């Protein structure tokens, strides 16, 4: 072999080995930084980390994306609000044991993990198969920082969203500004701990869509969680934290929830060559926060009817606005009635997203019946329901004021019990009793019809056997039934 040719082959082999080593590495160490053009790949080759330019932008960002998905799908961005204008970027471990991103000026970090690291010599950063980038102390394997604590627009399985009550630290999603700019956008998805905790989609800090409180199986305003074929959920609400984590039933499935630039939460799975969206929120007007005003509910299932309806015992605050299909003013209790120790009671409304729980009271030690009695004794209590739907309903949620942002669903939701005056209660009970009477009447009619049919059949059979005269002799007591009956 030509010596020059052999040297060339050796050089190519070494280049391939070095390239393979670089793309298979999942760890950044003090001696092994990541430069623009290099990538880290998680051990199972699920995720990759490196530099990228989104959309039509020429700016450079450090991000994490799915390694085996042909269309680059970014799930996390480090320097989302501090992009690089060239390819000089380097991601490395600095002398303080933190992960830092620098550009042409190596002494001035563009982005840093800024974690408290006790031992600066042993720090390393590893990309896990969950998509989590972690800063690790090898001697203890303790995470001193993780990207899952600082999500951008994507929620991945095993990522925690919510509040650490001990430190006040909150994890939440924020949208990109645009497809070309991953900077912090206008929309956020977070758990609001005020009152009885609930999930909110917000725009500029203002509620846009309310997912409601946790019901033991799902968030009250996210009925799709009942039928999820990919995810399972772990919700915690105690003195230390209020958080939710999505688990996954099949580790081979790639799934994500993305808060888009337009304020839509899309849940999707990867199938062959594309992302299949199986759930989007909000998707209709009744999903929007306060689409119908206080003491009314939104019903999108009757297109011929105004979608806002007053609760039982209430009437429109403005009949003109209601006539013009403007339900924002909501409803007020009917004039001249009393709901305080005057024979009042409760009327159920089925399949609802419960009202805003920021002013609700919760007592997990009460049964539903005890909740009813407690609400009945307190004249300021306007409604109640179970705090947890599991085990037949446990805990008590009660409202003491206006009922805000309620809607109904076709095949999901809870039963909400609304306080009404004695007249409305009597009307409801009368209607309920009338329905029972109609059912009994229907049963009676069917029974009589069956008996008559049986008698006719007996008569016909006897006539065939012995003739009409014999039938009349044998059954004289039934002659009045058959005298007008003609058998063909």
UniProtKB/TrEMBL annotation:
UniProt keyword annotation of Transmembrane present: yes
UniProt keyword terms in alphabetical order: Disulfide bond, Glycoprotein, Membrane, Signal, Transmembrane, Transmembrane helix
Residue ranges occupied by any Bulb-type lectin domain in the UniProt entry: 25-148
Domain of life (superkingdom): Eukaryota
Keyword Disulfide bond attached: yes
Signal peptide: 1-24
Apple domain residues: 340-421
InterPro entries per UniProt: Bulb-type_lectin_dom, Bulb-type_lectin_dom_sf, Pan_app, S_locus_glycoprot_dom
SUPFAM superfamilies in the cross-refs: alpha-D-mannose-specific plant lectins
Transmembrane segments: 441-462
GO biological process: recognition of pollen
The protein, known as: Bulb-type lectin domain-containing protein
Protein source organism: Carpinus fangiana
Lineage: Eukaryota, Viridiplantae, Streptophyta, Embryophyta, Tracheophyta
